[in-house]
Amino acid sequence: MLKKIKDIQLLTKNQTGVLYMVASVMCFAIMDICIKWLNYYPFGEVFFARFFFGLIPIFLIIPKNKWSNFYKTTRPGLHAFRAICGSIAFICIFFGLRHLPLADVVSLTFGGPIFVTIASIIFLSEKVGIKRWSAVCLGFIGMILIVQPAFIELNYYYLSPILFCIFFSGVAISVRALSKTEPNYRIAFYFTVLCTFIGLCTLPFGWVMPTVKDLSLFIIMGLCGSVANLLLTQSYRLAEASLVTPIKYSSLVYAIIFGFIIWGEVPKPLMLAGALLVILSSLIIFIREKKLKKEIVIPRS
Known about the structure:
The protein is about 75% helix and about 0% strand. It is mainly α and about 300 residues long. Residues about 1-10 have low confidence and may be disordered.
């Protein structure tokens, strides 16, 4: 009887993958809210907390038999490149979240696959057909609509999410190469350690002792950010990418809702139109790469 019960599979892999993706989106949303909420603390202090506490989930997924040499690698240069690109990308997204409407930042980060396509042409000599070039152009039109306040109000912070997308392309290309030989925990470890060190270097410029309430937010921010990435990766491992990728874009809904409730941010029609174009562009690139049987680019990894 017990054997029969154990043999019953409550959820399929696709269903489990969908749940992981939903949880990932929620964790990313919580992380974004915490980063934006804690903007009265020094930038470097918040940056440090995000990655220092983010190390905890990474250590928890390292296999016991790997603890003595989990950090050893034969590809230090590529790890360094991934970590540097990732740290710069996160610095940019931190600036964006602290100074721009939440929905604007989230919608611009969806442009990551657009820049990955361009980087693949430049660095990997990949051939890109008319469909993906059309998607890239469509995405750029969408991003221009989203960042129009940068031209009208001279708000140059809108450049930070775009810079995030550019450096994200370096992350995506390096992770594609590293994933062939390196486990996820090692890739995440070196990136997180570098970001923690960068944040720690800002200590001499003045940190503020957090209250108990804010310390809890620091911890939640770090844990959610790290767990979100782990859930995202596991989601793509378990479920068909075509099933879970569209769910990732529901993070814009969370951004609009929480941005309005907490900060009274009302999305502008041009921003919404631009966000739809960027999402459409990313989905076209995703569908095309799936047909070509290429590794899927995970947005906001």
